[in-house]
Every structure is written in structure tokens, then in C-alpha cells.
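Slides due. Your pick:
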Amino acid sequence: MKLYDLELSGNCYKVRLFCALAGIPVTLHPVDFMGGEHKTAPFLAMNPLGELPILQDGDVLLRDSQAILVYLATQYGGEAWCPKDPAHLAEVIAWLSTAANNIQHGPADARLIELFGYPLDKASTVAQSDFILPVFEAQLSRHDWLVLNRPTIADIANFPYIALAHQGGISLAAYPAIRQWMTRIQALPNFIGMPAID
């Protein structure tokens, strides 16, 4: 199994992290992002969007970190990480959508502006962060985990860019339940970090 990877990408990291936590062997293929490898014809043949990560597992070729998490969890991780029960599965998917939308356009985009100089609207990223982080705080004030009172791919999908929020100038000081949740994730067996996440 091969992961086309970028070390500083939170979306790539969530796949690396899940593989480590679930004990799924994966070979990393670093992509020369600064050199534009993700825009070359061979790469675009794998993912026409020119984005990372990409997972290749035999004949299976997948893009999008949330989709990759679903595949890995259901193919290799069992119900421990992704429930089959329709109602519980729907809850997990709702948090995956939150990761791809609110967290991406809040803390993740703020980080792109501050760390990489992306020409995005900083005020919009701050407003989105101010909207979504209290939602997480409320959920995690009542529960140790986002879904089912155990870690699932819902937690793994949302963790990276919340943990990296400080790199975008987004403070978590007002969110003790979120900070405790992050500590619980970092205490999971086989946890691995990335730059700026211990």
C-alpha cells in the first residue's frame, strides 16, 4: 500500500496517523509539492484535482483524506474505527463532513494563509473558526470522543487541523474540552506526530 504524501499536510497526516493507530502498513511516497509534482500529467492521471493525499492499495486508487479514512477503516480497521450501524455511521460521516468543510475553511485555511501565504480571506477563516470550535467544545464537554464514546475516524479526521490551529493564529485557550480531547488522542497507543504536533 502506498500513500502519496506531503509531510506538512494535515490531510496527509490524518491518513498516516490512522495507519499508525490501526496498525496498517503503508509505504510513504513523498511528493515534491514545491516543485509542482502534483500538477504533472502522471499525478493528474491519478487525481485530476491535483491534490494530496492519494492512496494506492493494489488496484484501488483513492483521493481525498476523508474517503481514504473510510476505506482504510472499513477494509482493515473493522468496526472499532468505523461502525456499520447506519445511524452511528451517519454520525461519523457528519463529523467527516465537518472536517472537510468547517475545519478546512476555518483553522486549516487560516494556517494556509499564515504559514504558506495563500491568498485567502483571513477574516473569513477566523469567523469560521469562531463558529465551529464552540460546536466541538460543546460536544467534547459532554463526551470524551466525537462519536460512540470511543475514538473513531471522526476524531482522526478533525484532529490535525484543530491541533495545528495555532499555526494559523487561531487560539484554543478558550476551549479546555478540545484541549483535553487532543491530549486523549495523543495518548492513544501508536500515536505519531507531525511537525508542530508533538
